[in-house]
Amino acid sequence: MFTGIVTSVGKITRAAPRDQGLRLAIDAGMLDLSDVAVGDSIAVNGVCLTVIELQGDRFEVDVSQETINCTIGLDGPNDVNLEKSLRLSDRLGGHLMSGHVDGVGEVTRFEPAGESFLLVIRAPQDLAKYIARKGSITVNGVSLTVNRVEDKDFEINLILHTITVTNLNKLKPGSRVNLEVDLIARYIERLQHYGA
Known about the structure:
Blueprint: E1 8-18, E2 21-27, E3 41-44, E4 47-55, E5 58-64, H1 65-69, E6 78-84, E7 103-113, E8 116-122, H2 125-128, E9 136-139, E10 142-150, E11 153-158, H3 160-165, E12 176-181, H4 183-194
Antiparallel strand pairs: 1-2, 1-6, 2-5, 3-4, 3-6, 4-5, 7-8, 7-12, 8-11, 9-10, 9-12, 10-11
């Protein structure tokens, strides 16, 4: 589990083909790897991946073809948001997220709005029903609050700190982003479908 509070922006330095997917080498940037072991999970742009090799301030992960098919930004050199998995004793500064990306959205607007930034994303039709005003959403691994929803489009206000410490500062209209909807919304739908 993760919180969506990004600890570092790292960089995919190599994406080498493997049987049914890729092996990624990632420069961890400012992410402290001193307490990370092979087998631990790290969220990479919101995708929960297992560390298979560690070397200094770099780590490697394998990514399946299925994960590549339903995410964006893991198939080549790219800046990525990083977060180590949550310990039970950690503060929950964002919201609970699994690192299982639900789909890819598209940025339709990204522009300054006073001292912050307005971000509007169009979600895939099948995810739109899970996105609620004042609810939580994960965008490229960043826990954010939805300010407004209109059909498939949702609006977020990004403070300067978030822009500074994540890769969201590279977004522009047409950019594609990984989305994970709130866990509670998914479970409520399942309960309603089968009755409580």
